[in-house]
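Dear colleague,

Following up on yesterday's call, I've attached the two folding results inline so they're easy to grep. Please treat them as preliminary; we haven't cross-checked anything against experimental data yet. The first protein's sequence and structure tokens come first.
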Amino acid sequence: MSVNVSNSTSISVQQYSAPLVAHLIANAPALGCLVTTHASGATIIDAGIQTPGGLEAGRIIAEICMGGLGGVSLQQVPQFANWPLSVVVTAKQPVIACLGSQYAGWALSHEKFFSLGSGPARAIAQREEVFKDINYSDKGEQSVLVLETDKVPPVEVIEKVARDTGLPASKLTFILTPTRSIAGSLQVTARVLEVALHKCHTLHFDLNAIVDGYGVAPVPAPSPDFITGMGRTNDAILFGGFVQLFVNAEDAAAEQLAQQLPSSASKDYGRPFAEVFKAVNMDFYQIDPMLFSPAKVSVTNLKSGKTFFAGQFNEALLNQSFGG
């Protein structure tokens, strides 16, 4: 199902994200980041491999991931006694910001290197089926890709991104965010709204009906162990994430969406994500895709003014995951 976002052709995630990338580069030392030039000519921003990569860096990177169409802030939310620091996410154009930019859907690999790419360059490369469904593409003279990795990508990966975007490597910026860093942990948790939009897409809900959205999730402490850290960022959303969507639909469709959206609707719900991941021999594709969603949702139907609620927070599992 194609999405026809009004004036979407005039919305460029490259254009909106460029000032954020420039700000990150200009203030890299203060933000705990390191900027270097790759042998290929690409700009590399290390946000947690050899540098601390702090909270503010993660917040800015999350907004870059959303193509400059998202607002990401850090707030104290009293929902969970032990984990008040939360990330709050809104989007000007939720479908484009979340699915057209923020979703980590571009798999990049070469020999022992593997990473999922997120951010504006995806919309130029058009390597994923989701772009046909949302009917969005972009262009630009430069672009940026965020990689969840603890290694600098080899020249072969950068050359592939250059070929697929049609841009020289010198016009590409790669932001590296290992999950074990503070910035990496934050930017993944900031996907709470994107996760809900992606599940709407998986459920074949009419994306044209989604008008706006809001998400919030507790920020987990990073872990030097990859699986533990990755598990915590997922659990932040699965057990502590809340999303409100504003839709134009029939009440029956809005209510059904609310019932299907929460993570508790999945057969794999009920254990910390790291345990689920290990149980399937670390094969994401064996995990029920319905699990990847916020703990609690509300769906407000603008046609009727009614709001439908579903799901629940699970503080016990959050404490088990975050504190271990």
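Below is the second protein, in the same order (sequence, then structure):
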Amino acid sequence: MWSAVIGRDEPGAMALATAAADAGADGETLLLDIVAAVQRRVGLEWAANRIGVAEEHAATAIIDRVIAVLAHHPAPPPSPTRGNVTVACVDGEWHALPARLLAETLTGRGWRVDFLGAHTPTPHLVAHVHQSNPAAALLSASLPTHLPTAHQAVTAVQSLGIPVMVGGAAFGADGRYARLLGADAWAPDARGAADRLARGITARHAERRHEIDDLPHLADQEYTFVKSNRATLVRQCLAALDERGPGMRAYSAAQRERTAEDLAHIVDFLATALYVDEADLFTSFVDWTRDILTARHVPAAGLRLGLDILGEQLRDFPRALGFIRVASETLPTAPTHAGPETP
């Protein structure tokens, strides 16, 4: 399957899937142990710079087609026997494949599933569950930067008396952020979610809560400041890099755009770390960014210079400054004579 997907052989990938299903392979096993495993490898190959973005997109599109074939092979799924649930990605989350795999798994286990797909705005999610009254809403988020919007979705759905289960890499390998945000349940993967749903989920919150009710540290307004001043912080950091990193001045427009994007991601993850008050979230992202840049032959010292400059912009915000210092300690010392050497 990997060879077919990475070789852009869509007919071959679909033939493999249907042949396995015809031979009696369990549909859930094919989805979660074969197709999902191939998709994870696609992500790892991109991170290691062994495939490009276009190749990653082409592979993901083939995998999406394979899922569709398996979902309706050899016949449409049986009639639902367990009730209805809603599966959706939180507002801003475009990585729909994990939620799609969950929806197909639940369908195979007898649930009637309303799959709302990627990037479901919270008002539309609330309107849907209000109308359909599901046994539970299952929300997916892959990127931690979507935790604030996930929190809004969780509290809004719970205010209707509908229990909410969350899952995806954004909530941490141990579900720590699911608990922090007050979700009624968390599962590490599709099988775990299906098993947990089968045992029943009770809504613990029936009132509308505010963010600060769950996260009292937000009272210091550091998250609000960083989030609302994102564009200004990125612009100021770029200007400082121009002054302190002569190599930046030779960058092309495309190279400067990539640098601005990296800085914007750093600010976004810092804001999210402030939201959940978790330094490890920011440090983990910085470590991941270092590995991504290293695989692309970009010196990690340039990343530390960018963090140092961001820290100077936020010197009056103790939590933010502390998070930046902790993350910077994992990186090589930034050179004082030059900035990033390559894009």
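For the second protein, one point worth flagging: The radius of gyration is 22 Å.

Best wishes,
A.L.
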